[in-house]
From TrEMBL:
GO terms for biological process: methylation. PANTHER family: TRNA (ADENINE(22)-N(1))-METHYLTRANSFERASE. This is SAM-dependent methyltransferase. Keywords: Methyltransferase, Transferase. InterPro entries: SAM-dependent_MTases_sf, TrmK. It comes from Lysinibacillus piscis. GO terms for molecular function: methyltransferase activity. SUPFAM superfamilies: S-adenosyl-L-methionine-dependent methyltransferases. The keyword Nucleotidyltransferase does not apply.
Length: 230
C-alpha cells in the first residue's frame, strides 16, 4: 500500500469523501489517505493528525515525498485536537481503530465538529459503539459499507448531522447493512454466532452466579436477534 494505491479498506473510506472536501484524517499513520485524496483531486486540503511520534514523523516524510506540503498539514496531537477552527474542516476520517476508541475521540473535543458535515468512520471492531454515539449526539447514518480484506471484515460508517431512530438489531448490525445483506455481512455475523455459541457452551458448566446468568441471557438474546436478519 502507498499513497497511489490504497488498501481496499482505505479505498472504500475514500469513496465516501465528497469532492472539494477539506479533510482531517485522525490517526493518519503514513498519511496515505490524505495524500491520495489530494492527488486524486477529491480533497482540496487535508490535515493528517497523529498522536504517536513515530507515525507522525512517517506522515511528515510521506507528505514531503509526495510534494504536498502546501496542501496537507501534519500535526502531532491527540485525536480531534489536531483540528483548528480556521482549517474549515468539513469531513473527518478515522480508520483502523476500535469503535469505542473512535467514539471517545469524537466525544473528547465536540467543539472541533462545528464546521464538520460528514464523518467517515472505519472501526475494526464494535461498530455498535459508534452508532450509539451518533444516536446521542444528533448524527445520522448516511451510508454503511462492509468489506472483507485479507480474511478480516471491516465496516465503514458514514454519518451526517441529523437525527435517526435505530432499534436493537439495527444498532448492533447497522440498518443499511441489514438491508443489503452483503456476503461479508453474512460471514461476519455467522462468525459472531459461532463465537457466542462457544461462549454459551463454556459457561454451561460454570457456577451459576448472577453475572453468569446475565451473560447467558445477553448472548442468547444476541443470537436470537442476529438469526432474524440472516
Amino acid at each position: 500500500m502507498n499513497a497511489q494505491k490504497l488498501s481496499q479498506r482505505l479505498q472504500t473510506v475514500a469513496t465516501f469523501v465528497p469532492t472539494g472536501a477539506i479533510v482531517a484524517d485522525i490517526g493518519s499513520d503514513h498519511a496515505y489517505l490524505p495524500c491520495y485524496l489530494v492527488q486524486a483531486d477529491i480533497a482540496t486540503a487535508a490535515i493528517a493528525g497523529e498522536v504517536v511520534k513515530g507515525p507522525f514523523e512517517s506522515a511528515v516524510r510521506q507528505v514531503q515525498k509526495e510534494g504536498l506540503s502546501e496542501k496537507i498539514t501534519v500535526r502531532l496531537a491527540d485525536g480531534l485536537a489536531a483540528i483548528k477552527l480556521e482549517d474549515h474542516v468539513d469531513t473527518i476520517t478515522i480508520a483502523g481503530m476500535g469503535g469505542p476508541l473512535i467514539a471517545s475521540i469524537l466525544e473528547k473535543h465536540p467543539e472541533k465538529l462545528q464546521t464538520v458535515t460528514r464523518l467517515i468512520l472505519q472501526p475494526n471492531i464494535h461498530a455498535k459503539a459508534i452508532r450509539e454515539w451518533a444516536l446521542s449526539h444528533q448524527w445520522a447514518i448516511l451510508d454503511e459499507e462492509i468489506i472483507e480484506e485479507d480474511d478480516k471484515i471491516y465496516e465503514i460508517l458514514v454519518l451526517q448531522k441529523g437525527t435517526m431512530q435505530l432499534d436493537e438489531i439495527e444498532l448492533l448490525c447497522g440498518p443499511k447493512l441489514i438491508q443489503r445483506k452483503a456476503p461479508a455481512f453474512v460471514k461476519k455475523w455467522q462468525r459472531e454466532q459461532e463465537n457466542w455459541q462457544r461462549i454459551l457452551q463454556s459457561i454451561e458448566g460454570a457456577e451459576q452466579t448472577t453475572d453468569i446468568e446475565t451473560k447467558r441471557q445477553e448472548l442468547a438474546r444476541q443470537l436470537h436477534l442476529v438469526e432474524g436478519v440472516l
